[in-house]
Amino acid sequence: MPVPLKIVIGLAVAYVILRVGLWFLRGFATPLPAPPPPGELRRVNLRYRCGLCGVELRMTAAPDEDPPAPRHCQEDMEIVAPPFE
Predict the structure, then answer these.
(1) Could you tell me which residues come within 8 angstroms of residue 38 by beta carbon, excluding any fewer than 6 positions away?
(2) Other CB atoms closer than 10 Å to residue 42's CB: what's the count?
(3) What is the spatial distance between Cα 34 and Cα 31, in angstroms, rounded to a whole number?
(4) What confidence score (pLDDT) does residue 23 get?
């Protein structure tokens, strides 16, 4: 393989590595999304079941990502693992 071809291939590989590295570092530099303003609801997919009577409830919006469990029959409801959707 001639020397000029090796140099061109080496420069191309260095350019690709540099571009991928900069893309990767740019991903770390972007800030996380800001939390919603107070009073705005987040999307959640939580399912609860009452331990006494068996009623089930699906929560789709909440003020935070980990809301407190709702109450039914004067007891806190138990969280149920969501089915695969």
Answers:
(1) none
(2) 13
(3) 8
(4) 94
Q: Is the pTM of this model over 0.70?
A: no
Residue 80, pLDDT score? 86
The SS3 assignment for 17 reads helix
DSSP 3-state of 10: helix
Distances (CA, A) of 30 to 23, 25, 57, 58: 11, 9, 37, 34
As to burial, measured by CB atoms within 10 angstroms (0-12 exposed, 13-18 middle, 19+ buried), residue 77 is buried
pLDDT at 74: 87
User: In CATH, what number does 42-80 get?
Assistant: 2.20.28
Which two structure tokens, joined as six digits, stand for 3?
């020397």
> Average pLDDT, stretch 9-23?
96
For the chain, what are the domain ranges? 1-30, 42-80
